[in-house]
Design brief:
Elements lengths: L1 E2 L2 E2 L10 H8 L3 E2 L1 E6 L5 E6 L2 E6 L2 E8 L3 H9 L1 E6 L5 H6 L10 H4 L4 E2 L8 E2 L4 E13 L2 E13 L4 E2 L2 E2 L1 H4 L3 E2 L5 E2 L14
Antiparallel strand pairs: 1-2, 3-15, 4-5, 4-8, 6-7, 7-12, 8-11, 9-10, 11-12, 13-14, 15-16
The protein binds flavin mononucleotide.
C-alpha cells in the first residue's frame, strides 16, 4: 500500500515479511558473541544481534533466540553465558560461528578460536575479544517465535589496553554491528556532544 509517498506494510497482511523489515529498520545492532557450555560440558559460540541492555541496577543484558538454538538450550541448562564483544578483527570468526554446527560441536574448537577462562562463570570467553560480559541467567521470556534471554551481569572483563581513563575505549573495542540482510556495519565514526542538563 502506498500512502502519501510512503510504502506502508501492514503486519496484518500475511504477505508482509516482517523479519527482513525488522532487521533492516532496527539498525545498527550490536552483536553479542555468546559463549555457553552445555550440561555435558560442550562449549558453544554463536552471534546474536538481537541484543541490548535491559537494566542498569542490577546490570542486566538481554539477547533473543529466534527459535530454539544450542545457545538457548545451554543457558537454560546451566544458567550462565558470556557476551563477547564482536570486534572488527574477529569478523570472519564471528560470521563462521553462526553456521549450523550440531550441538555436539564446539564452534570454538571447529574454527580454532582460542578461549580463555572467565573470571566468575564457567563458560569461557573469547581470548582475542577485547571485552566480555559475564552473565548469570535472570529469566527467559518466551515471546512469539522467540525467547528473550535476560542475564544479570556478574563481571565485566576488559583488556587493560582497551581501558582509557577508566573507560572501555571505542578505538580499541572496534565493535562490529549487524544491519539488514547480509549487511554488516564497520565500527562507527565517533564524535562527542554535550547532553543538555536543563530545558
Ligand atoms: C551477525 C549475526 C547475528 C545473529 N543474530 C541472531 C540473533 O539475534 N538471534 C538468533 O536466534 N540468531 C542469530 N543469528 C544466527 C545464529 O548465530 C545461528 O542460528 C547460530 O547457528 C546459532 O548457534 P547455536 O545453535 O550454536 O546457538 C545471527 C547470525 C549472525 C551472523
Amino acid at each position: 500500500m502506498t500512502e502519501s509517498g510512503r510504502v506502508v506494510l501492514r503486519t496484518d497482511d500475511l504477505t508482509t515479511a516482517s523479519y527482513p523489515l525488522l532487521t533492516s529498520l532496527v539498525v545498527p545492532r550490536p552483536i553479542a558473541w555468546v559463549s555457553s557450555v552445555s550440561a555435558d560440558g560442550i562449549g558453544n559460540l554463536a552471534p546474536h544481534s538481537f541484543f541490548t541492555v535491559v537494566s542498569t541496577r542490577p546490570p542486566m543484558v538481554a539477547f533473543t533466540s529466534v527459535g530454539s538454538k544450542d545457545t538457548l538450550a545451554n543457558v537454560e541448562a546451566t544458567g550462565e553465558f558470556v557476551v563477547n564483544l564482536a570486534s572488527a578483527p574477529l569478523l570472519d570468526q564471528v560470521n563462521l560461528s553462526s553456521a549450523p554446527y550440531d550441538e555436539d560441536t564446539d564452534e570454538a574448537v571447529a574454527l580454532d578460536i582460542a578461549m580463555a577462562p572467565s573470571a566468575l562463570v564457567l563458560p569461557p570467553r573469547v581470548a582475542a575479544s577485547p571485552a566480555a560480559i559475564e552473565c548469570r541467567l535472570h529469566q527467559t521470556l518466551p515471546l512469539g517465535d522467540s525467547v528473550v534471554v535476560i542475564g544479570e551481569v556478574v563481571a565485566f572483563s576488559v583488556d587493560e589496553t582497551a581501558m582509557v581513563d577508566g573507560h572501555p575505549d571505542m578505538s580499541h573495542l572496534q565493535p562490529l554491528s549487524r544491519l539488514g540482510g547480509d549487511e554488516w556495519g564497520h565500527p562507527p565514526a565517533v564524535f562527542h556532544l554535550t547532553r543538555p542538563t536543563s530545558v
